[in-house]
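We were asked to recover a plausible sequence for a given structure. The inputs and outputs are reproduced exactly as logged, with field labels preserved.

PROBLEM: sequence recovery
POSITIONS: 226
GIVEN STRUCTURE:
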């Protein structure tokens, strides 16, 4: 299994959210696409996979556009956690009907079992394996029903995008050194962890989702002495 060094630094994310990583056309296009289409598409997928609930948590909420769409669709209490100050400020402006908290995904400032559904979008792939396990632990700790993890797929078009940004644009971080996932890859990384798999046609097959139960995550971590 090939290992790529990930850049998940606050500095990288600040440059990404302000479109200051070299020529800014790519990042500006991504931000516009999220605002115009993907925010709503992701919210509909959360609703489809998790069901209509009283409360939702998005970890790594970024600009908050998906969370705000989800709140409007459900009327639920929607909370987002974000570690990057710039994205946190953007989230406060965009997700005006939600609660946005400045905090760490690996040490969530939230009580146990305080949300029906927890989800993340394009975050999990930037962590190393130890951080991914800790991330799952925290998601299971704060969640009662389902944990939804959305990640980029290991598909030809996503591999091409990553290669171009990494080798031609000389970038590190998001959209450059992301870990790409398939159902088989997830099984290899977390053997014995029960999950359901969903490939996202609404996201143009660029992303996939892993649907997990908190008790299955806790069982997996305990069984492997993690």
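RECOVERED SEQUENCE:
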């Amino acid at each position: 299994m090939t290992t790529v060094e990930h850049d998940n630094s606050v500095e990288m994310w600040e440059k990404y959210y302000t479109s200051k990583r070299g020529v800014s056309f790519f990042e500006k296009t991504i931000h516009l696409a999220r605002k115009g289409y993907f925010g709503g598409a992701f919210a509909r997928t959360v609703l489809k996979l998790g069901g209509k609930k009283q409360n939702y948590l998005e970890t790594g909420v970024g600009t908050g556009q998906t969370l705000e769409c989800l709140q409007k669709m459900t009327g639920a209490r929607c909370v987002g956690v974000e570690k990057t100050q710039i994205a946190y400020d953007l989230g406060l402006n965009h997700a005006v009907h939600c609660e946005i908290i400045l905090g760490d995904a690996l040490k969530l400032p939230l009580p146990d079992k305080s949300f029906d559904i927890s989800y993340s979008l394009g975050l999990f792939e930037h962590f190393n394996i130890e951080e991914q396990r800790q991330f799952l632990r925290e998601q299971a700790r704060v969640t009662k029903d389902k944990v939804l993890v959305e990640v980029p797929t290991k598909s030809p078009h996503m591999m091409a995008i990553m290669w171009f940004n990494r080798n031609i644009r000389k970038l590190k971080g998001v959209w450059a050194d992301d870990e790409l996932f398939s159902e088989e890859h997830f099984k290899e990384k977390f053997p014995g962890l029960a999950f359901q798999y969903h490939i996202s046609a609404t996201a143009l097959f660029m992303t996939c989702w892993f649907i997990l139960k908190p008790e299955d995550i806790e069982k997996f971590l305990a069984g492997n002495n993690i």
